[in-house]
């Protein structure tokens, strides 16, 4: 039975960097994936009310102001 411990917040970032290195991709922040996903969905014409739920924005105004450039 595995020992359950709290997640070290640095682990996802370390793993992500490792994946990027092994794939030969440039370094980006893990958080950048959130912005990329939202931007791509907006460019595809997905409704802003649907998109705001993915990054967890409580108000659509946050989503609209952060991604107004798309």
TrEMBL record:
Coiled coil: none
Domain of life: Bacteria
Tyr recombinase domain ranges (all copies): 1-70
UniProt keyword terms in alphabetical order: DNA recombination
Stored InterPro entries: DNA_brk_join_enz, Integrase-like_cat_sf, Integrase_catalytic
One protein family per Pfam: Phage_integrase
Keyword Nuclease tagged: no
Entry-linked Gene3D superfamilies: Intergrase catalytic core (1.10.443.10)
Protein's name in the database: Phage integrase family protein
Lineage: Bacteria, Bacillati, Actinomycetota, Actinomycetes, Pseudonocardiales
């Amino acid at each position: 039975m595995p020992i359950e411990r709290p997640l070290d917040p640095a682990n996802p970032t370390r793993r992500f960097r490792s994946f990027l290195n092994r794939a030969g991709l440039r370094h980006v922040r893990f958080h950048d994936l959130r912005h990329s996903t939202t931007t791509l969905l907006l460019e595809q014409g997905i409704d802003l009310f649907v998109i705001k739920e993915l990054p967890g924005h409580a108000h659509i105004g946050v989503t609209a102001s952060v991604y107004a450039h798309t």
